[in-house]
Amino acid sequence: MIRLWRSFLAVLCFSLFGLGAGVISFVIFPYIHFFIPENKQKSSYSEVVHKAWRFFIKLLIKVRIINIEFPEKEHFENLSGKIIVANHPTFIDIVILIGLIPKSTCLAKKATLKNPLFRNIVKSIYIINDIDPEKLKENSAKFLSEGFNIIIFPSGTRTKPGEDFKIHKGSAAIALNTMAEIIPVKITTDVPFLQKGQLFCDMGGKTVKFTLEAGRTITPADFANLPEIKARNAISEQIKERIS
Q1: CA angle 103, 195, 3 (to 5 degrees)
Q2: Rounded alpha-carbon distances, angstroms, from residue 207 to 60, 64, 74, 135, 162
Q3: Quick one: which H or E segment has residue 175?
Q4: How does strand 208-214 pair with strand 182-189?
Q5: Residues 178, 218, 88, 3: is their CA dihedral positive or negative?
Q6: What is the chain's pLDDT, residue by residue, as a tens digit (244 residues)?
Q7: What residues form DSSP beta bridges with 86?
Q8: 134-to-108, 170, 222 alpha-carbon distances in Å
């Protein structure tokens, strides 16, 4: 009975999330585009998504679907121009991170532009990652120079705890191009939750505890004396070590 009730609450919450995405895409973002000065638009887009997703996370906590332990939360609220890399165990990892970290964006696949609810959000404030590598580095550098934090899942897809995964070199390439510091974040849950291959309606029978742990900062300048390929590999190895 408890599992059914939790699933019902989750369906309500995610339905509200979808409704909110529609309002943001078709009402709020067009308003910002036409009535906010161009030099302030990206910050406005980012703030709207951050506050909306923060509300959604608080709602999930309020109805006891999840709980979040994030000791360094206050530190992350003041970050600027950093690359945040994290493992990716659940479907809502990006929602949690953007909901907790102001002025942040992320890398998104071009396929997300086909989603009518999120297309306007993605093209307005996210960085498409499956494009020409030089264009990706250029776009990322622009966001970082404007004080945005870029959230990246180096595995590229959800992975299960204990599962070995490959680290894509994009985050290391962006860091070396911009010399922006990389902050690793390891996400864990005390029970399986919205994992790859897990039914969306399976909310389990208890509140799921998310724990976010920040690892030691990776400074790309420390690898500047290495050839670029070796530097990318070395940084990627450190990323994997700290988020696995």
Answers
A1: 105
A2: 10, 5, 24, 42, 22
A3: helix 170-178
A4: antiparallel
A5: negative
A6: 788 898 899 999 999 999 999 999 999 999 999 999 999 999 999 999 999 999 999 999 999 999 999 999 999 999 999 999 999 999 999 999 999 999 999 998 888 888 888 999 999 999 988 878 889 999 999 999 999 999 999 998 899 888 888 999 999 999 999 999 999 999 999 999 999 888 777 788 899 999 999 999 999 999 989 999 999 999 999 999 999 9
A7: 185
A8: 16, 11, 22
Residue position matching structure tokens 């006891």: 64
How many Cβ atoms sit within 10 Å of the Cβ of residue 60? 25
Tokens of 64: 């006891």
How far is the C-alpha of 76 from the C-alpha of 103, rounded, in Å?
Answer: 10
**Domains, the chain, ordered by start:** 2-243 (3.40.1130)
d(CA 48, CA 53): 9
The token pair at 99 is 């909901």
Q: Are 208 and 191 in contact (CB under 8 A)?
A: yes
The residue among 90, 57, 89 whose CA lies nearest residue 73 is 57
Rg (CA), the chain: 18
Q: Which of 184, 176, 181 is nearest to 224 (CA)?
A: 176
Tokens representing 97 are 């991170």
Structure tokens at 186: 């390891």
Q: CA–CA separation, 207 vs 230, rounded Å?
A: 43
